[in-house]
């Protein structure tokens, strides 16, 4: 039995231009800490647009900018460390950017490949998304929802700080899972 209500489908064809509803979206990440537990975080400030072409998915586009200074890991000391030169160096690199280069679709499943820029490093990544529904809200906005994730190696983006553990292993995992819970509003 699902703990959430079933998604709704308000429109059959979701083609169109959209803007991320940042108040109802979450951009998060998960990293393993001390080889024994997961630490979760998220970014509180971001903006993005999407053009969805259901007939020719490759014509779809996504553009996302994240304010890295808005990072929240649930701990102020850790937030400060993550913002420092050991990791994001937010004074020099205040933004993360993702710009799509290719989009594929299989039913409700989408694969969005694009250039992810963290600090001064750009790498191609593919994020797998599942379309989670559409709705017309009480204010007349047409919304679509997507959930997605991908795993990246933080060292590929110059986030190399770590500390060895006496028992072997390291304090922070190299692999970081990126999580996307997206609500987007169709442009009128």
Descriptive overview:
- Strands 1-4-5-7-8-9-10-11 form an 8-stranded antiparallel beta barrel.
- About 5% of the residues lie in helices and about 55% in strands.
- The chain has one helix spanning about 75-85; strands at about 15-20, 25-35, 35-45, 45-50, 60-65, 70, 95-105, 110-120, 120-135, 140-155, 170-185.
- It has one domain (about 15-185): Lipid/polyisoprenoid-binding, YceI-like (Lipocalin).
- It is mainly β.
- It starts with 15 loop residues before the first strand and ends with a strand.
- It contains 1 helix and 11 strands, in the order ββββββαβββββ.
Question: Which terms would index this structure?
Answer:
single chain, 188 residues, mainly beta, Lipocalin, eight-stranded antiparallel β-barrel, 11 strands, globular
Distance between the termini: 37 Å
Integer average pLDDT:
88
Largest sheet geometry? 8 strands, antiparallel, barrel
Helix content: under 10%
How many helices? 1
Instruction: Tell me the β content.
Output: over 45%
Describe, in short, the structure shown:
The chain has 188 residues and is mainly beta. It has 1 helix and 11 strands.
Q: What are the SSEs and their pairings?
A:
Elements: E1 16-20, E2 26-33, E3 37-43, E4 46-52, E5 61-67, E6 71-72, H1 76-83, E7 95-106, E8 109-118, E9 121-136, E10 142-153, E11 172-186
Antiparallel strand pairs: 1-4, 1-11, 2-3, 2-11, 3-6, 4-5, 5-7, 7-8, 8-9, 9-10, 10-11
């Amino acid at each position: 039995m699902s703990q959430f209500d079933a998604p709704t489908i308000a429109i059959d064809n979701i083609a169109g231009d959209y803007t991320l509803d940042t108040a109802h979206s979450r951009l998060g990440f998960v990293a393993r800490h001390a080889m024994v537990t997961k630490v979760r975080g998220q970014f509180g400030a971001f903006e993005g647009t999407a053009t969805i072409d259901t007939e020719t998915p490759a014509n779809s586009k996504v553009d996302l900018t994240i304010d890295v200074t808005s990072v929240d890991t649930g701990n102020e000391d850790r937030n400060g460390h993550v913002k420092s030169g050991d990791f994001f160096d937010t004074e020099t690199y205040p933004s993360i950017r993702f710009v799509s280069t290719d989009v594929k679709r299989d039913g409700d499943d989408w694969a969005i490949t694009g250039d992810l820029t963290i600090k001064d490093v750009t790498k191609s990544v593919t994020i797998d998304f599942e379309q989670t529904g559409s709705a017309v809200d009480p204010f007349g906005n047409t919304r679509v929802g997507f959930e997605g994730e991908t795993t990246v190696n933080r060292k590929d983006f110059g986030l190399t700080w770590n500390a060895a553990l006496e028992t072997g292993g390291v304090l922070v995992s190299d692999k970081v899972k990126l999580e996307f819970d997206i609500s987007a509003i169709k442009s009128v």
